[in-house]
Specification:
Elements: H1 2-7, H2 20-32
Length: about 45
């Protein structure tokens, strides 16, 4: 889902699974959504 958001609306290059930037984005999203269920397209 992160790569879709980077590639489509932003027209950027997708990140690999092990890219430190991808890990940072995952950590940021999880931290911001603590206590709230994640549902793609609902936030």
């Amino acid at each position: 889902m992160i790569n879709w958001c980077i590639e489509n609306p932003l027209e950027g290059e997708k990140l690999t699974e092990n890219d430190p930037k991808m890990k940072a984005l995952e950590a940021y999203i999880l931290d911001q959504r603590k206590g709230v269920a994640l549902a793609a397209g609902k936030h």
